């Protein structure tokens, strides 16, 4: 299952382990009990666990997702791995030290550029005027085109890919591919923050794709763990 995001990106469900029933049985093992099917009482147990902050049972379920995202999204997402103190996350990313895969960039169209918000130091405001947006797109494309020429020249001269990549243009907009494996608790933490209305638009779109892929797998548990509608 794959959901397209932005102009070239996507999120793909690679694999998963467990279900809402896994959460229930992880909790009930304390009393040497096990459920065969999810019952109303099991649903109440999940509600209790989420409400009271008993989160370890949610860490017995995992999802593995593949992302293709601009670096500015990937680096925001990465914070949820290096800053995680409640679960073990795994992250593996394509490396241009070893490969010279095609370079693709996130390029907002003229009507997609956003203004600086009036009352905040971060985030975005209203859309920019179309003429300014058009020039911003053109300027970005010029940088990308020139940078690609320089990068390809470096490779043709035999410069090592790990150094030639310094010439790759538009670093924040360049797409990168990576796998993220995380527990349901970790996924819900990411979603609670990045589905919020004041998070960056681009990562909101990736968070929505994650939600759409994961929610059918853990409908009860995720519904209880999320604070963001």
Task: Reconstruct the topology from this structure.
Elements: E1 2-5, E2 9-17, H1 20-28, H2 40-52, E3 62-70, H3 71-82, E4 90-93, H4 130-156, H5 161-164, E5 175-183, H6 184-194, H7 201-214, H8 219-225
Antiparallel strand pairs: 1-2, 2-3, 3-5, 4-5
Helix pairs in contact: 1-2, 2-8, 6-7
Characteristics:
Gyrase A, domain 2; 229 residues; EC 2.1.1.148; 42% helix; alpha+beta; Thymidylate_synthase_ThyX
Q: How many helices in DSSP terms?
A: 8
The shape is elongated
Mind describing the biggest β-sheet? Answer: 5 strands, antiparallel
Q: What's the structural domain tally?
A: 2
Tell me which CATH architecture of the largest domain applies here.
2-Layer Sandwich
Report the CATH C-level class of the largest domain.
Alpha Beta
Residues in helix, %: 40-55%
Low-confidence stretches: none
Order of helical and strand elements = EEHHEHEHHEHHH
Strand content: 15-25%
Q: Radius of gyration over alpha carbons?
A: 21 Å
Which structural class fits the helix and strand makeup?
alpha+beta
Mean pLDDT: 88
Q: What would the CATH topology of the largest domain be? A: Gyrase A, domain 2
Task: Calculate the terminal CA-CA distance, rounded to whole Å.
Answer: 23 Å
Strand order across the largest sheet: 1-2-3-5-4
- In total, the number of strands is 5
Pfam families: Thy1
Region (Disordered): 112-133
Keywords: Methyltransferase, Transferase
GO molecular function, one term: thymidylate synthase (FAD) activity
């Amino acid at each position: 299952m794959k959901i397209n995001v932005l102009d070239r990106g996507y999120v793909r469900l690679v694999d998963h382990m467990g279900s809402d029933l896994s959460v229930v049985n992880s909790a009930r093992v304390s009393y040497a009990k096990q459920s065969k099917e999810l019952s109303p009482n099991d649903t109440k147990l999940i509600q209790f666990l989420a409400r009271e902050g008993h989160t370890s049972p949610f860490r017995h379920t995992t999802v593995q997702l593949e992302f293709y995202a601009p670096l500015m999204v990937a680096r925001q997402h990465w914070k949820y791995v290096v800053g995680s103190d409640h679960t073990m996350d795994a992250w593996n990313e394509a490396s241009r030290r070893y490969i010279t895969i095609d370079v693709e960039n996130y390029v907002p169209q003229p009507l997609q550029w956003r203004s600086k918000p009036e009352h905040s130091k971060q985030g975005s405001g209203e859309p920019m005027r179309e003429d300014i947006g058009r020039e911003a797109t053109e300027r970005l494309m010029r940088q990308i085109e020139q940078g690609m020429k320089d990068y390809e020249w470096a490779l043709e001269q035999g410069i090592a890919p790990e150094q030639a990549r310094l010439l790759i243009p538009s670093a924040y907009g360049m797409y990168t591919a990576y796998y993220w494996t995380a527990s349901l608790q970790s996924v819900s933490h990411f979603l609670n923050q990045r589905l919020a209305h004041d998070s960056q638009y681009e990562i909101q779109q990736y968070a929505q794709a994650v939600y759409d892929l994961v929610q059918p797998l853990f409908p009860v548990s995720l519904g209880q763990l999320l604070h963001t509608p």
